[in-house]
Amino acid sequence: MPLSVRDTPQTITVVPQEIIKEQRAYTLDQALANVPGITLSTGEGNGGLNGDQFRIRGLQARGDMYTDGLKDFGTYTRDIFNTESVQVIKGPSGEYFGAGNVGGIINQSLKHAHAGDSYRYDQAFGSASLFRGNADVNYQINDDIAIRINGMYNRQDVADRDRVNSNRYGTAVDLGVGLRSRTSWHLNWQWMHADSVPDYGVPMIQGPDGIYRPITSHGLARNTTYVRSFDRDNSDIHNLTSSLKSDITNWFTLTNDTRLSKYEREYTATTPSACTGTCASEFRAGGDPALIYGAGGGAAYDQKGWGAQNILMGNAHFRTGFIHHEIKAGVDINYENDDRYYGTFYGRVNDQTIRNPTRTSDGAYVIFPNSGYRNADERDVGLFFSDRIHLTKQLTLFGTARWDAFSSSYYAPGGTGYGQSPTATRGTQKADRWSPSGSIVYSPVEMASFYFTFSRSYKPVGTDVSSMVTLSGTTGETPSASKPFSPQRSDLFEFGSKADFLHKHLGTTLAFFQISENNSYYYDTNGDLVTGFADQGSGRRIRGIELSLTGKITRNWQIYGSYSYMDGRVTHSAASGGNEAPQVSHNNFSLWTSYDLSRRILNDGWGQLKIAGGAQYASGYWSGPDVTNTARIPYTFSLNGMLSWEMKHYRVSFNANNLTNHLNYGSAFSTSRAVPLSGRTFLGNIGLTF
C-alpha cells in the first residue's frame, strides 16, 4: 500500500492512539465504535464461534483481522493494550491482502520499542466492578537497541448483563534492533489469556406484524441472561512476529515480515432462540414462557490451532525519463490449521424460562470426545506487484495486481453424529485467481486530490478457518469433495477526494462507493444458485457516501468525526432478491471532540485540563445473515463524555458512557437472538508517567 492514508485512493478510517486513550477503549470493538458502517454478529450457535466477528458495510470480515499487516489468526475478544492505532480499510482489498476479504480489513498497529526511556502505568476502576491495570515500559539499552514491555490485567463484570464477565490478561515484549541503522529488526511476542463467561444475548420475539425484534425492547429486563454455571470462554493466544527492514540503497528497500501464532480455546455457551407463537402471546400477556433454545441448547467446543505467514517485499523508487515510479513486489505465503472437538453434554436439562431463568446446572457437565473431532486447514501463496506512476506533479496512476493460489480442506472422521459419515473423506477446495486494482489520482492543488478506484477481491471456501462453522460438512462454510464451490467475488468502484486545511492541521475526506458482491458458493446441476448456510446463496450490492473531518480546528480544539450513508440490496437470490441487505445501517455517524481548557482556567505550571465528548449513532437495520428482512434491530445511540487533568508525572481522568442510558444492541443473529449492550456506565483512571 502507499506509505500514507492521504496517498491511498480508497476509504481508510484510522482510530488514533489519542482517541483510544481519551475514550479509555480497551477492546477492539470499543475502538471500532468510532468507525461508521461496522456491525457485529454473535456467531451461529450450532458450531459457529463467538468473538470478534465484524462486518464492514454489511459484508463478512470475521477472518480479515490483521496486526502490522499480518494475519491475526484465531477468533477471540481482542484487547488493545498493545495497540498504537486501528485502521479500517473499507472495500475489497485482495490486491493488498490476498484471498479472503470482500468488504475490507481491520488492522491494528502494534506498540514497538523506540529510542528513549519511558515508564507508564494506568489503573482504572468503574461500573460493574471493573478493575484494570496497564503498564508500558520502554528501555533503551544502547544507541541501536531498545526493549518495550506491555502488561495488562482486566477483571470486570459486564454492566447490565447478569452473570457475564470479561476477564483478560496479557503481556507483550518488543525488541528493537537497529533503531538508528539502515537495517532494523523488531521481534515481538504477545500473549493474551481470557477467562470469561460468554453472552449469547436474548431471544427475538415475533410481533403481530411478523417481524422479529429483541425481546428486551418489549419489556424484558435488559440485564436478563441465560448463562449457566458450565458456560465459559477460556483462551490462550500466542503471537511471535519478526519484522525486518533494510534500506539497501537510496532507491531500494527490502522487508521481510513473519508471524507464527498458536491459539487454544475452550468454549461453552447457552444459546437462546426466537420466541414465537404461544411463547410470544404468553409473554405479551405477562407470563413467563419456557425459553426456546437454538443449537440443542448451546455450543461447546475445544479448539486448538496454529498459523504462520511470511511476506517478502521489495520497494523501489526510480525514474524512466520524466516518469517517477514507486514499485512494490513480493511474495506472501500463509498457512493455518484448526483442530476442533465438539462437546457432548451430560445431565443438562433445558428448562429455563424467559423472565426468570435458572443458573445452576445440577451437576451437568460437558466432555469433548474424539468422535466430535473436526479438522480444517488453508494454504495461500500470493504474488503481488504494484506501480505508482507519477506522470506529472498533478496526475498519478496507481495499479496493483495479485495472484493467489489458494487451497483449503475439511475432514470429519467416521461416526454417527450430525455431519459425520462412516466413509468420510477429506473435502478440498482449490482456487487460482487474480485480484486487480487500478486508480487515477488528480491533485489540482497541493492541498487536495481527487481519485477514482476499481478493485476486485476473491474469497474461496475455507478462508475463515478459525471461525467458520465446522460442525457439518454439508454447507458452504467448509470445502467438500462432492460440490463444485466457486469463490465469492467482490468489486469496488469508488470516487472520492481527500483534502487538508488550516496548514494541514485539519483533514477531510469524501467518497462515493459501490460494492457488488457475488456471494455464490455453489450451483446445482442446472446452473441454479443453491441457498446455503449463513451468507451463502445470495449476493449484496452496497452503495453509499462517506465523509470525515479529523484534526485541529484551533490550537486547543480537536475534532474526530465521520458520517456514512449506505443503501444495501440483496442480489442473486430468487426468493429475496431486491430486499434490503442485512446488517447495513442506512445512516451512521461518530463524533468525538476535545478542548484544552488549560489556557483559560489554569495558571502556568498547573498542567493540562481537557474536556471531551461525543456521540455514536447507527440507524436500525435488518438482522442477518438471513436475507428475508424478518428481524429488525433498533437504532443505536450513545452519548459519551470525558474530563482529564495531567500535570508532570500524574494524570487523572473520568469517563461517562451512554449518558442517556439508551438500550443498544452490540450484535445479533438473524431471527434468533440479539445481545444488549451496557447502559450508563462510569470509568475512572489514575496514571503515572516517568
From TrEMBL:
Cellular component GO terms, alphabetical: cell outer membrane
Domain TonB-dependent receptor plug: 5-105
Membrane-topology annotation of the record: Multi-pass membrane protein
Family that this chain belongs to: Belongs to the TonB-dependent receptor family.
Subcellular location field: Cell outer membrane
Single GO MF annotation: siderophore uptake transmembrane transporter activity
Chain ranges of the TonB-dependent receptor-like beta-barrel domain: 183-659
PROSITE patterns from the UniProt entry: TONB_DEPENDENT_REC_3
Keywords, comma-separated and alphabetical: Cell outer membrane, Membrane, Receptor, TonB box, Transmembrane, Transmembrane beta strand, Transport
Name of this chain's protein: Iron transport outer membrane receptor
Superkingdom field: Bacteria
Major subcellular site: membrane
Organism listed in the record: Acetobacter oeni
